Amino acid sequence: MLRRDFLKRTGGAVAVAGFSGAAMSNETGLSVPPEEAPHQRCFMQWPNSREVYDDAEFLRMTQAAIADIANAIAEYEPVTMLAASEHHARIGRMVSGAVELWDIPTEDLWCRDSGPLFARRPDGSLVVSHLQFNGWGNKQVDTHDSQIATRVAERLGLPVIPSGLVGEAGGVDHDGHGLLIGHESSWVIDNRNLGLSRAEIEARLLAAYGATRMIWSPGVRGLDITDYHIDSLARFTGPNRVLINLPDEPDDSDPYHVAALETHDALIAGGVDVEVIPEPWERRVDSVDFVASYANYYVCNGAVIAAEFGDEETDEIAREALARHYPGREVVMLNVDPLGELGGGIHCATQQMPA
Q1: Which residues lie below 8 Å from residue 97, measured CB to CB, with a gap of 6+?
Q2: Structure confidence at residue 188 (pLDDT)
Q3: Would you state the CATH architecture of domain 9-354?
Q4: What pTM was estimated for this model as a whole?
């Protein structure tokens, strides 16, 4: 089942809560490094569940896209693919020898959400700062995926520090220098954090990331399986600096367009330096539910791995913007349309382990 198709657009409502930029102290001592800091490796997950993918041909296309992403990243940093051992022989024929295979069973590919969030203690040692995945609010089978973060931590011999939150790392973005952004719709919702107020959730997110301030925007509840993850819209590219992907001609009747503009305004009001790049005007996939996000990229050692959508003009605008925001890194753009059809992108499929 496609993530953006999980609920139809008419089936939910736009969140209406206000913005927040309250500052708090970091009392946990944990700190999640910025994504552009050096990496030890990248974790990815192999999609394989026929409970999730009822179309065998589309599953093969999705697996090919995941292999392409892994191979591109492996040119710059080690990649560890998580998959049950029964799949290793086939995966090994699709990925380069630089991709290591670990016997950790998976259902789906979204390692940003179900994989481990790594943080440092004050002494520099790594831990897993744990956000508990539950299939985006019990919407998808997650027998294995909900255990991946703790299983990786066990294999690495790292402590797991519970955050007290159910949710996904794709639902919050951080600059690694004290600031978080997120959509309320992915966090202040009963299928993740029943009974917790926004203030309580914010405090726990700040503690989990070692941040001191959070900017909220309402987001969109109930119209896609993630409840509108921030990482397909806006990404920190440095301290207090964001790259945001917006439509050139917003449709006031589209709740995602309305929510995206609200997020843009919240960032500006919060004093963030914001650069806007357009969504592609022409795409290979013509579907209202296709996620065409240039913002959903992965920063690795020496490169930025991003999506291209077949629009030469906007693809080049995105390439130039990423090159400006990440000087000294090569920008590698891939056709990962199956992920867009699923409602995600390259960032959603990856999770970095700090060096």
Answers
A1: none
A2: 98
A3: 5-stranded Propeller (3.75)
A4: 0.93
